[in-house]
Amino acid sequence: FNMEEFELYEDLKGNWIINANFIGNLNRDSSLPLVLLCTVYTNFGYPSQTEEKVIINLNNQNSNKKIISLEI
To answer: How far apart are CA 5 and CA 7, in angstroms?
Structure first.
């Protein structure tokens, strides 16, 4: 289990594409998948705050997967 937080503010205006690329290796004997859960908050801390959850299965090494596109 691991957690990482990234914050994007108005000073980083533009179109963003957030990707995940699995470059490690899994125990080949394990049947457990590598799963990435991403929670994207928009307008964080304001009454108009929204939350979007994206679940990505990373089971192939060096497979680039798009998580979300954002415009700031």
So the answer is: 7
Q: Which residue has the tokens 């594409």?
A: 17
Three-state secondary structure call for residue 52: strand
Sign of the alpha-carbon dihedral angle for 43, 48, 38, 69: negative
Q: Give the tokens for residue 55.
A: 């679940």
d(CA 28, CA 9): 40
Distance (Å) of CA 53 to CA 17, 35, 57, 59: 16, 13, 13, 19
Pick out the chain residues at pLDDT < 50: none
pTM, to two decimals: 0.68
